[in-house]
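Input.
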Amino acid sequence: MRLTYVGDEGYFSTLERDGGRGPYTITALVPVWGNDPGQLNESALRATTTDYPDEIKALYLAPPAAGMLGPNALRLEAKIRATARSSAPVDLAVQMVKELHDPAIYKYETDIRGLDCTTLSTVECFATFRQGYCQYYAATMAVILRHMGVPTRIAEGFLPGTRDPSTGVERIQANSAHAWVEVYFEGFGWVPFNPTGGDVVQLAALPSGPPAASPGARSSNGLPASSRKADLDQPVDAAGRTRPPGPGGGSLGPLIAVGFLLLLVIGGLALAVWKRGPRGATTADGAYGTVTRIASRFGFGPRPAQTVYEYAGTLGDVLPGVRPELETVARAKVESVYARQVIGEEQLAILGAAQRRLRVGLLRLAFRRKERRRR
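Output.
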């Protein structure tokens, strides 16, 4: 047997046999998939650090060669960023697999001689024609994830064979050769992902894992847990004790007057916005722009790293009453701008109605200053 490794730390690369046909035994440490502490699951991987060792970055985050990522590959990368649950490496990897497994978009094809890819890289060829076999799927996922800052490598081996239940011997044919990818997670090592679609045998999905819970925990979109809202709103005396509002807590007259005036102002703005309605033809990009523009005026603009769905979820937590409209706009934005899908007349009508309601509903952000300070 010949073991090949890379780097000073001895990262496993390949294991080759020098000849012979007899049986052999390999002992290796492998992670256990499950939802118990210390086991491999999405929640555990989402909590890992992205402060990778220098050697990992040098070996598995090298920038792609010139021409490797063309316009279609970059468009696919943008779609993954926009549709992933978060920017965490595990969510980017999971979304990449989900995308490449979509049979309505990608076709597993071993004969690609008819594709005109002579001037294209493997990744750009696959992103353009959306056809290919395992090496095309794996290369596309590996290169795009690396470009997004996720250490990834291509692994090659064999698909499972047929096991004899009486002897335990599993026969693997030479034509079962396969390629997949492995993503590095600090504390867990290399975790396999199989992006190849079609009828190829797939890996079981990663367990979701237990939800993260800790004192003062914040929701996944960065907003404080709603269970603490009542405590945060209670007045506090000089000793730090909460006390109910009432006599001795200060005059409420000025506050009531200010609140009434604010209601009049917001009501007037809402009426004006409703009457004016959206300007021009309804588009997914325009509807999403309306949301971000109004929300930004009240201090609830999108963060630089937030995806479209993350941002819509954040606003939906602040204003649950318009959550369905926010989801409608976010879905249209992703499908139209990133997935390049054409929105039909019926969907445009639904989008226009959602945009109109949001132009009014988002004005309630003026009353959410506490949430804005804690974002």
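The chain has two domains: 2-162+174-193, 259-373.
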